[in-house]
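Practice problem: predict the structure.
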Amino acid sequence: MAAPTTTQPCLRHSTPVLLLLLTALATARACRHPHARDDAFPWDSLQLLQAMAPSPTQPCQLQQAPTLPSTLLHNSHPQQAPTIALRILQHLFAIFSSPSSPQHWDARARDELLNNLQHHIQRFQQCLSANSMLFQGRGPRNLLLSINKYFTSIQEFLYTHKHSTCAWDHVRLQARACFQQLHNLTRATRK
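Answer:
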């Protein structure tokens, strides 16, 4: 007489789904609870920004430099903060990795700043890809367009002033404001 067979649940199909879900949850948790290095990022970047260029010897008298969009300063949607932060980081990386940056800047500080920017760009990209289902269709389109327009105006400002040392000093001041805003945005993602 044959023993009764018991059916075992087929886990073969549910295992990949479960693994994807756990990976997404772990990544999302990492986005919500950043490392200690992430807390210091904006302030470390401000120090590197200061270290990479000496203070100007004389005040610059250029036209009005672009300023951070007011819509960015008053972002009331914390769920948009990672998307906004990523876009700002990408633009800052593009500007400071430009071959037209001043030759007298401290190369070590500039390289360290670029490495920090790249690290955080990758971190936000991972967070956003892990949470892509959450953010789909909710992108802050007008805000992202404002950010793009702002950084385009910075590039135009540099071009108009022939990438002069003085123009780059104005850009560094704007980057300073961006890092301060990044600090506010990353705090918003933890709430």
